[in-house]
């Protein structure tokens, strides 16, 4: 580096900072426009038609017909309720568990690194691997979960084939995979709480719970909220775990909105309806994302 | 609520003799906490251990009721089946692993090549509506894949990208780009802009200053970012299953999912291929453990 | 061997990647934007016609690609074709692409939708023909069949089931209707029963079968009376209900008036659903509500079922000692397992399974010619017998009755005896939606998420809605 002689000024036509910024940013934006924005605009257009990807023929303009049909459909309401139950159940459970684990870990001085690493393994696995393996473990006949319950004298549980247990199973598996996510972020927040605050509190002989409530939680809360919102968005989009674990069953009782969109789009190839359905989902995601970004922005400014 | 809990705590008899009780209670509580953590750690790890154990069990023991935890017949056949096909040649599964390597690798390179300069530009220059642009970029990452795949499918069929590795590479690159930009912007922010200013005083152009002085300092950050992009692409399932269909193009996640639903299910093989599939991810994740928080929040949270 | 069309798009290193990508994406964007409706015009599309005679074949190396789902017959077909067809056409290699069963319909029809297929011959389920023909995805081979195939060598219904559209009446073939495919693999359900538990003689009626299973379950703790398909994916639970529906004298629909509501859920249909949910389901294993082919096979192989129902083409693995706990040799296993045609009740109908070969409308001319030649070759009497010996299920009557076939497996006799008893589902473009509605609802009824009556009425109502949906304005497919 030192040996390099600085080039003569103005030997080559210099790119202005502005030009450089454009040259560096535009390829990335172009890719995003082509692969994210353009497809969504196209879907927006299709959502007002009865276009089908396989049947061919010109697309007929149906105005808001797809939207009103979707919003009025009892089938869709059922999937929305399933998705809501799933999101609230899974994210709620993960938050409580993840935060508890993080809190416990943050109180340890030794073995923290090892513990954190161990807890993080599930999060790194592909949903395919997670789904398949839990399907094996939850098998009513030879699954290890029922085998262990059996040795405790609890009869075989139909984890994946009963209406209630199937949704619970989905929530449990998702919680297993994503509790580490909440834990990781909560841990980052907990370790960032300045020690002197606790020391001051312990001089005051404040109770543990009081310290937790007045010092720890307020400081970790903003970060935790971001983690929760992030998970909520991801959970709202859930598809792969359902596809592998229950295939939406029994009946359609574990079909999420994403799974239903898939059926509309690829079983009947009702592309227009599926596009409208998708756009409605995107609207929900945009609202959630806006919330997320707003909190993120606040966090960054603090 | 809070008040009543506080009152309950403050009327606790332990509070009457603080020093000894707290020490004794503290030790007991500490032991309880360690025990709790151990149990939780076992619960979290058990499925993974069970997967590894199943991958080295004879099929008869895989289906044993009650489940066999220790005295099972050991075999490496399942791992052999992952790589060697029924006829003796390469198995379809091993081809899919190779496809995954290509798709994840190239898409990561593409996202990095596009994302790092953009992140640098966002960090260094006064770009119009910078915050809006950055938030827009991140929000594209949150679109439900099942929804995006519908227009992408129509788009790809016009240009012949259905069932091609290039098609997957492009969509993965586009999905990893927001992450790369956000994550890298954080790393660039940490390199003082003064380095470049000083170099420019020496007569380097801005571009040269970036290439010769900033870029080398970013290498560890680029590596960490690339590893995360690699993991996301490697694990991706939804686009893969809808945009590919032939053995030659299919990546590992749909191939592994396809192991069930035939005429027989070989859970030993499912376990072995899952282990082979997950191992590189775990190794890579371990390598970037310092950056995990930033990585899993798509670069949004940095601590 | 890789398919030439897909062969590696080169990756330019470094900076060029950016430029190339940007350029390509721009092109993609523009093309996609203007190409939206352009190619899809033409109102009601119909299938393009295949030539009546096989065009001249290429002498260059050629890969003839099939698409099927992942199961043993797919491998058997690839091995068989490469061994035998190569004798006639040494420059041709046959490749059978396989996809997961759950993804089979989607994988074929997304490629059809893309107007570009990586296969030359699609192996469609018999009920997929309507959708493929209506969309113009496969060739009309009526003229080709007239000139090249001996149609009298087949049971007319088999020929119709795997090729004719519009659908034939059960048991018949309409000689004036067009043909779009030829049989590849015949199939139906077989009853698999434990000779050591219920005796050598299989039950003859459905009611008898249920009571035998009930007794067997009571006498043998740990063994369940029945095992059958209940899953909500593919066509699993739907075929199960349809089978019971047929046996108890029900009808899936009135094809002439396109009426389902009031036909499917008539008294016979209700009785069939009641038998399935209230008499058969209690005899199955706990948690069997998501079982399909593989799980039923596993239950039989592990000795956990007295009587099971499965597709014949998927039953080969049951005789493999490596996968079975019933014996260490094929003979030992056969000492315990019996295979029989389905019991009858009010009718003796059995489900039609299996698939035909259909030529992709989007494959290259040379490949289409080769595909036609392959089909002509495949449907010859001696080749059909060899296919039977190699583990396939033929469709030509002479091959079905040949010793090569009947001796190849204990269940092949079952197939031969079932041919005249077969009934198919609806072969209409809306098939995928119809079968999904039936699958999910039957699965719901089997798992207690809906009452039998509610489930059956929902099926009838929703399916009718799909058939009638063309008049609606928006919201199709919900």
Automatic annotation (TrEMBL), chain A:
<keyword id="KW-0812">Transmembrane</keyword>
<feature type="transmembrane region" description="Helical">
    <location>
        <begin position="274"/>
        <end position="293"/>
    </location>
</feature>
<dbReference type="InterPro" id="IPR000515">
    <property type="entry name" value="MetI-like"/>
</dbReference>
<feature type="transmembrane region" description="Helical">
    <location>
        <begin position="84"/>
        <end position="105"/>
    </location>
</feature>
<protein>
    <submittedName>
        <fullName>Carbohydrate ABC transporter membrane protein 1, CUT1 family</fullName>
    </submittedName>
</protein>
<feature type="transmembrane region" description="Helical">
    <location>
        <begin position="117"/>
        <end position="137"/>
    </location>
</feature>
<keyword id="KW-1133">Transmembrane helix</keyword>
<dbReference type="InterPro" id="IPR035277">
    <property type="entry name" value="MalF_N"/>
</dbReference>
<feature type="transmembrane region" description="Helical">
    <location>
        <begin position="210"/>
        <end position="233"/>
    </location>
</feature>
<dbReference type="InterPro" id="IPR052730">
    <property type="entry name" value="Sugar_ABC_transporter"/>
</dbReference>
<keyword id="KW-0472">Membrane</keyword>
<feature type="transmembrane region" description="Helical">
    <location>
        <begin position="20"/>
        <end position="45"/>
    </location>
</feature>
<dbReference type="Pfam" id="PF00528">
    <property type="entry name" value="BPD_transp_1"/>
</dbReference>
<dbReference type="InterPro" id="IPR035906">
    <property type="entry name" value="MetI-like_sf"/>
</dbReference>
<feature type="transmembrane region" description="Helical">
    <location>
        <begin position="178"/>
        <end position="198"/>
    </location>
</feature>
TrEMBL record, chain B:
<keyword id="KW-0812">Transmembrane</keyword>
<feature type="transmembrane region" description="Helical">
    <location>
        <begin position="97"/>
        <end position="122"/>
    </location>
</feature>
<dbReference type="InterPro" id="IPR050901">
    <property type="entry name" value="BP-dep_ABC_trans_perm"/>
</dbReference>
<feature type="transmembrane region" description="Helical">
    <location>
        <begin position="166"/>
        <end position="184"/>
    </location>
</feature>
<dbReference type="GO" id="GO:0055085">
    <property type="term" value="P:transmembrane transport"/>
</dbReference>
<keyword id="KW-1133">Transmembrane helix</keyword>
<keyword id="KW-1003">Cell membrane</keyword>
<feature type="domain" description="ABC transmembrane type-1">
    <location>
        <begin position="97"/>
        <end position="288"/>
    </location>
</feature>
<feature type="transmembrane region" description="Helical">
    <location>
        <begin position="31"/>
        <end position="52"/>
    </location>
</feature>
<feature type="region of interest" description="Disordered">
    <location>
        <begin position="1"/>
        <end position="26"/>
    </location>
</feature>
<dbReference type="InterPro" id="IPR035906">
    <property type="entry name" value="MetI-like_sf"/>
</dbReference>
<protein>
    <submittedName>
        <fullName>Carbohydrate ABC transporter membrane protein 2, CUT1 family</fullName>
    </submittedName>
</protein>
<feature type="transmembrane region" description="Helical">
    <location>
        <begin position="134"/>
        <end position="154"/>
    </location>
</feature>
<feature type="transmembrane region" description="Helical">
    <location>
        <begin position="213"/>
        <end position="234"/>
    </location>
</feature>
<keyword id="KW-0472">Membrane</keyword>
Automatic annotation (TrEMBL), chain C:
<keyword id="KW-0813">Transport</keyword>
<keyword id="KW-0732">Signal</keyword>
<dbReference type="InterPro" id="IPR006059">
    <property type="entry name" value="SBP"/>
</dbReference>
<comment type="similarity">
    <text>Belongs to the bacterial solute-binding protein 1 family.</text>
</comment>
<dbReference type="InterPro" id="IPR050490">
    <property type="entry name" value="Bact_solute-bd_prot1"/>
</dbReference>
<dbReference type="Pfam" id="PF01547">
    <property type="entry name" value="SBP_bac_1"/>
</dbReference>
<protein>
    <submittedName>
        <fullName>Carbohydrate ABC transporter substrate-binding protein, CUT1 family</fullName>
    </submittedName>
</protein>
<feature type="signal peptide">
    <location>
        <begin position="1"/>
        <end position="32"/>
    </location>
</feature>
<feature type="region of interest" description="Disordered">
    <location>
        <begin position="455"/>
        <end position="478"/>
    </location>
</feature>
């Amino acid at each position: 580096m030192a040996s390099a002689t600085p080039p003569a000024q103005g030997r080559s036509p210099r790119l202005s900072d502005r030009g450089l910024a454009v040259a560096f940013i535009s390829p990335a934006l172009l890719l995003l426009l082509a692969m994210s924005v353009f497809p969504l605009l196209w879907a927006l257009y299709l959502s007002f038609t009865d276009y089908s990807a396989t049947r061919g023929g010109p697309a007929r303009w149906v105005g808001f017909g797809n939207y009103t049909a979707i919003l009025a459909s009892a089938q869709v309401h059922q999937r929305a309720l399933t998705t809501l139950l799933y999101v609230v159940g899974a994210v709620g459970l993960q938050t409580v568990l993840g935060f508890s684990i993080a809190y416990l870990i943050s109180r340890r001085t030794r073995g923290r690194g090892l513990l954190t690493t161990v807890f993080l393994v599930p999060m790194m696995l592909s949903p395919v691997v997670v789904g398949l393996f839990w399907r094996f473990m939850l098998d009513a006949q030879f699954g290890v979960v029922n085998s262990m319950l059996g040795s405790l004298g609890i009869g075989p549980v139909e984890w994946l084939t009963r209406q209630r247990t199937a949704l619970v199973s989905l929530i449990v598996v998702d919680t297993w995979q994503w509790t580490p996510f909440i834990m990781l972020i909560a841990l980052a927040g907990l370790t960032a709480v300045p020690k002197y605050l606790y020391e001051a509190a312990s001089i005051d002989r404040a109770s543990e719970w009081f310290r937790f409530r007045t010092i720890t939680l307020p400081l970790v809360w903003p970060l935790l909220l971001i983690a929760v919102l992030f998970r909520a968005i991801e959970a709202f989009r859930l598809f792969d775990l359902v596809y592998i674990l229950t295939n939406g069953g029994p009946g359609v009782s574990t079909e999420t909105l994403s799974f239903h969109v898939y059926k509309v789009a690829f079983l009947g190839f009702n592309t227009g309806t599926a596009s409208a359905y998708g756009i409605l989902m995107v609207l929900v995601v945009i609202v959630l994302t806006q919330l997320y970004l707003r909190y993120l922005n606040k966090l960054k400014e603090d | 609520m809070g008040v009543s809990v506080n009152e309950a705590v403050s009327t606790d008899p332990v509070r009457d003799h603080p020093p000894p009780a707290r020490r004794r209670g503290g030790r007991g509580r500490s032991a309880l906490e360690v025990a709790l953590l151990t149990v939780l750690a076992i619960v979290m790890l058990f499925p993974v251990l069970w997967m590894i154990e199943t991958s080295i069990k004879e099929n008869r023991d895989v289906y044993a009721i009650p489940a066999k935890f220790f005295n099972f017949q050991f075999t490496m056949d399942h791992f052999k089946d992952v790589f060697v096909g029924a006829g003796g040649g390469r198995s379809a599964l091993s081809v899919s692993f190779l496809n995954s390597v290509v798709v994840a690798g190239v898409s990561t390179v593409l996202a990095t090549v596009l994302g790092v300069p953009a992140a640098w530009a966002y960090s260094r220059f006064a770009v119009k509506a910078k915050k809006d642009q950055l938030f827009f970029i991140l929000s594209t990452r949150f679109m439900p894949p099942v929804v995006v795949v519908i227009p992408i499918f129509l788009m790809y069929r016009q240009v012949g990208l259905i069932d091609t590795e290039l098609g997957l590479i492009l969509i993965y690159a586009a999905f990893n780009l927001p992450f790369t930009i956000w994550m890298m912007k954080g790393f660039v922010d940490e390199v003082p802009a003064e380095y470049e200013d000083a170099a420019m005083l020496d007569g380097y152009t801005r571009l040269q200053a970036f290439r010769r002085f900033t870029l080398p300092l970013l290498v560890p950050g680029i590596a960490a970012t690339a590893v995360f992009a690699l993991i996301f692409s490697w694990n991706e399932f939804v686009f893969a299953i809808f945009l590919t269909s032939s053995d030659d193009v299919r990546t590992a996640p749909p191939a592994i999912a396809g192991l069930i639903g035939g005429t027989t299910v070989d859970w030993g093989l499912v376990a072995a291929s899952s282990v082979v599939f997950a191992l590189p991810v775990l190794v890579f994740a371990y390598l970037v453990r310092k950056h995990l928080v930033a990585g899993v929040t798509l670069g949004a949270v940095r601590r | 061997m890789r398919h030439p069309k897909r062969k590696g798009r080169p990756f330019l290193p470094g900076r060029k990647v950016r430029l190339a990508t940007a350029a390509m994406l721009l092109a993609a964007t523009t093309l996609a934007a203007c190409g939206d409706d352009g190619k899809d015009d033409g109102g009601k599309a119909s299938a393009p016609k295949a030539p009546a005679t096989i065009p001249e074949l290429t002498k260059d190396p050629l890969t003839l690609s099939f698409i099927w789902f992942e199961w043993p017959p797919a491998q058997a077909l690839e091995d068989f074709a490469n061994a035998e067809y190569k004798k006639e056409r040494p420059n041709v290699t046959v490749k059978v692409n396989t996809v997961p069963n759950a993804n089979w319909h989607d994988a074929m029809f997304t490629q059809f939708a893309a107007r570009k297929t990586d296969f030359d011959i699609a192996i469609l389920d018999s009920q997929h023909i309507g959708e493929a023909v209506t969309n113009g995805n496969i060739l009309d081979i009526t003229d080709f069949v007239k000139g090249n195939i001996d149609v009298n060598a087949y049971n007319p219904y088999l020929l119709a089931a795997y090729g004719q559209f519009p659908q034939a009446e059960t048991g018949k073939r309409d000689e004036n209707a067009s043909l779009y495919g030829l049989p590849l693999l015949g199939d139906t359900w077989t009853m698999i029963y434990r000779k050591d538990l219920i005796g050598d003689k299989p039950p003859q009626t459905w009611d008898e079968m249920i009571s035998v299973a009930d007794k067997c379950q009571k006498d043998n703790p740990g063994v369940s009376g029945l095992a059958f398909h209940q899953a909500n994916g593919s066509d699993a639970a739907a075929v199960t209900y349809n089978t019971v529906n047929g046996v108890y004298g029900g009808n899936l629909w009135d094809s002439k008036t396109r009426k389902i509501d009031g036909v499917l859920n008539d008294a016979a249909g209700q009785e069939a659903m009641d038998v399935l949910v209230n008499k058969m389901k209690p005899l199955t294993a706990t948690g069997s509500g998501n079982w399909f082919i593989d799980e039923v096979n596993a239950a039989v192989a592990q000795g956990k079922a007295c009587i099971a129902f499965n597709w014949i083409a998927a039953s080969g693995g049951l005789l493999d000692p490596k996968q079975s706990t019933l014996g260490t040799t094929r003979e030992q296993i056969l000492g315990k397992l019996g295979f029989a045609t389905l019991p009858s009740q009010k009718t003796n109908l059995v489900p039609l399974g299996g698939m035909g070969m259909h030529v992709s409308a989007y494959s290259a001319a040379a490949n289409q010619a080769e595909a036609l030649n392959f089909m002509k070759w495949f449907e010859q009497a001696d080749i059909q017998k060899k296919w039977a010996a190699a583990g396939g299920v033929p469709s030509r009557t002479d091959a079905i009755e040949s010793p090569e076939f009947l001796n190849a497996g204990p269940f092949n006799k079952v197939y031969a005896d079932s041919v005249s008893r077969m009934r198919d589902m609806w072969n209409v473009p809306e098939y995928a939606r119809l079968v999904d509605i039936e699958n999910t609802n039957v699965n719901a009824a089997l798992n207690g998420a809906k009452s039998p009556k509610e489930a059956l009425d929902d099926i009838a109502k929703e399916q009718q809605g799909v058939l009638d949906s063309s008049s609606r304005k928006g919201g199709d497919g919900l």
